[in-house]
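I trust your eye. Have a critical look at both lines of this record:
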Amino acid sequence: EIGGNLNVSENTVKTHVKKVLGKLHIKNRGEAVA
């Protein structure tokens, strides 16, 4: 959904999310929520 709104591919969104989580030393989105 987010990618569609910003006209970027799903893979681009996943890559950016991975990089942000990596910088925060978080292994997955579940840890980010907790």
